Amino acid sequence: MILGHVAVGGFMTHCGWNSTLEAIAAGVVMATWPRFGDQFVNERLVVDVLRIGVAVGAKVPTLFVDEMSEKALVKGEEVRKVVEKVMQGGEEGDERRKRASVLSEKARKAIEVGGSSFENVKKIIQFAKGENKHLE
């Protein structure tokens, strides 16, 4: 509900899968700041594939370096630039927001009755209940 509020202009995320999906479903553009693990892959999806995010510039998983190491630090000036870019209008910002809105609509349709996510969850429940003859 918070991400979907009209006052939210962007979302700074660590790129965990749940927060990434929630932002996509809400149609919110993202400033991405991964810390470790799959978060770097999720960032590539958001920034390079879906093109609805701007990377803060984290390069090294903090799990493997001291968080105060020069390799792990993201400078405040870089964060400021990314937040401005996420919040900007203009052609680039408008296109980013338009893509986020389209993805949000697709996510909504997927969870409606008959949508792909709805149907797949229904199949999982049927399988768990032993009603899996149609899945063979």
TrEMBL record:
Q: Which domain of life is it from?
A: Eukaryota
Q: Does the keyword Transferase apply?
A: yes
Q: Does the keyword Transferase apply?
A: yes
| Pfam families per UniProt | UDPGT
Which residue stretches, if any, does this entry annotate as coiled coil? none
Q: Show the InterPro entries listed in the entry.
A: UDP_glucos_trans
UniProt keywords (A-Z) are: Transferase
Q: Which GO terms describe its molecular function?
A: UDP-glucosyltransferase activity
Q: Which family does it belong to?
A: Belongs to the UDP-glycosyltransferase family.
Q: What is the recorded name of this protein?
A: UDP-glycosyltransferase 73C5
Q: Which classification does the entry list for the species?
A: Eukaryota, Viridiplantae, Streptophyta, Embryophyta, Tracheophyta
What is the gene called? UGT73C5
